[in-house]
Design a protein that fits this description.
Blueprint (H helix, E strand, L loop, with lengths): L6 E5 L3 H13 L3 E5 L2 H11 L3 E5 L7 H11 L5 E5 L4 H9 L4 E4 L5 H56 L5 E3 L2 E8 L7 E8 L3 E9 L4 H21 L5 H4 L2 H16 L5 E9 L4 E7 L6 E4 L2 E4 L18 E4 L5 E5 L12 H13 L5 H7 L12 E7 L11
Parallel strand pairs: 1-2, 1-3, 3-4, 4-5
Antiparallel strand pairs: 6-7, 7-16, 8-9, 9-10, 10-11, 11-14, 12-13, 12-15, 15-16
Helix pairs in contact: 2-3, 5-6
Length: 403
């Protein structure tokens, strides 16, 4: 179907042929510029850029093939239809090689052939223009996306540095107990977090939390949690006295639960919270939906600590039971985030837990050997955030070099 208003340039030195073509195409709805020779035709083309050029092949001053070549040098997308009184194969081949959209033979007995050729060439032109327009939009969108990704990466790297700065030093020795940790995020930011510290030169408090979700949203909660825990310990003075040592772990969980419910972050967390009396080796701990359970290694045996408890931030009036354990003179206590379960080869949870015990049973408790035993040193991409917290009284430096 003819698209009205398209500008065509018709070049033919034969006045009768030129007039008949122009009259027919104008009746068909095209706007026509007619020139009698190639020189005037190419001059008008350079100043006006029509949608299509129709040119005779044989003209005295500038033949159709030379004109076709000039048109393509100015704008290779503009279709050119060549018409000729002689259908020589060599001319046809050369015209098509130079980029002609079609080659028609005079006399044009049926002008519908001409309009069909013109409409077909204009349809190809429209596709080319649409493709270029879409490509420009796509290139712009890609540039904007690349810039957005660069900004996001910078923001996440800055956020990761904030998380790293909030983590405690590792390893740290408290008397004959060394505490160490390692967190490796699956992305830039981690939803796992670890903290510990000594209160009143006696009570070693420590926790490992795993915030639901991934990326910035869960990472922001770890920052919030760090500040909240500090405020609770400072203002409520939990873990400061021997009597409070018996119950404060549960109170700590309740307060975190209430604050998280009020915050409306839209996430919850699982955690292990422990408080160790470094004078007596008595430990009190609570579990907030945490898996796998912490592993205690002593005398060549590995076992899970007992206990259970609800995740934090889901149940408004949830309470937690305080469990207790007496740590032997030589021990390794290893707390893992649930990301470690992703790298264990067993097909189900029971098998994975047994695999973890088997791997940790003969482990010396240093982070480097734990990392190696789990095969994490060979992984390029972590399937999930993975965090490990160790309390160790066995070796001189259980932190190891795992950087």
């Amino acid at each position: 179907m003819t698209d009205p208003g398209r500008q065509l340039l018709v070049i033919d030195d034969d006045i009768l042929v030129r007039q008949s073509i122009v009259a027919y195409l104008e009746d068909s709805g095209f706007r026509i510029r007619a020139e009698s020779n190639g020189t005037d035709g190419i001059a008008w083309f350079r100043g006006h850029k029509p949608d299509l050029v129709l040119t005779d092949l044989r003209m005295p001053d500038l033949d159709g093939l030379a004109l076709l070549k000039m048109v393509k040098e100015v704008d290779p997308d503009i279709p050119v239809i060549v018409i000729s009184g002689m259908g020589m194969v060599a001319d046809v081949a050369e015209a098509l090689r130079l980029g002609a959209a079609d080659y028609l033979i005079k006399p044009l007995v049926d002008m519908e052939v001409l309009t069909h050729s013109i409409n077909k060439a204009l349809a190809v032109l429209d596709l080319q223009r649409d493709n270029k327009r879409y490509r420009r939009k796509l290139e712009k969108a890609n540039r904007e996306l690349r810039e957005y990704v660069r900004v996001l990466e910078r923001d996440q790297q800055a956020g990761r540095q904030v998380q790293i700065n909030l983590l405690p030093p590792t390893p740290v020795r408290y008397g004959d107990i060394t505490v160490a940790h390692k967190i490796v995020p699956s992305l830039y930011l981690s939803g796992d977090f670890i903290d510990y510290g000594l209160i009143n030169d006696r009570y070693l408090s420590f926790y490992l939390t795993d915030i639901s979700g991934h990326g910035a949203s869960s990472a922001f909660v770890t920052v919030w949690l760090k500040q909240l825990v500090r405020r609770i310990i400072r203002e409520r003075r939990i873990f400061h006295q021997q009597d409070a040592f018996q119950i404060d772990a549960a109170e700590w969980m309740s307060m975190i639960n209430q604050e998280l419910m009020r915050s409306k972050f839209g996430c919850h967390l699982t955690c292990f919270v422990g408080i160790l009396d470094t004078h007596t080796r008595q430990m009190r701990y609570v579990l907030g939906g945490h898996l796998p359970l912490p592993v205690l290694v002593a005398d060549g045996e590995a076992r899970f600590l007992e206990g259970k408890g609800k995740p934090v931030g889901i149940f408004k009036d949830a309470t937690w039971e305080v469990y207790q354990a007496t740590l032997p003179e030589k021990f390794s206590l290893m707390v893992f985030s649930d990301g470690v379960l992703e790298v264990l080869p067993a097909p189900d949870l029971i098998g994975k837990e047994q695999c973890l015990l088997d791997l940790m049973k003969n482990n010396t408790g240093d982070l480097a050997s734990i990392w190696s035993s789990l095969g994490l040193d060979k992984l390029k991409d972590m399937p999930d955030d993975i965090a490990v917290l160790t309390l160790n009284s066995v070796g001189p430096n259980p932190g190891g070099d795992v950087s």
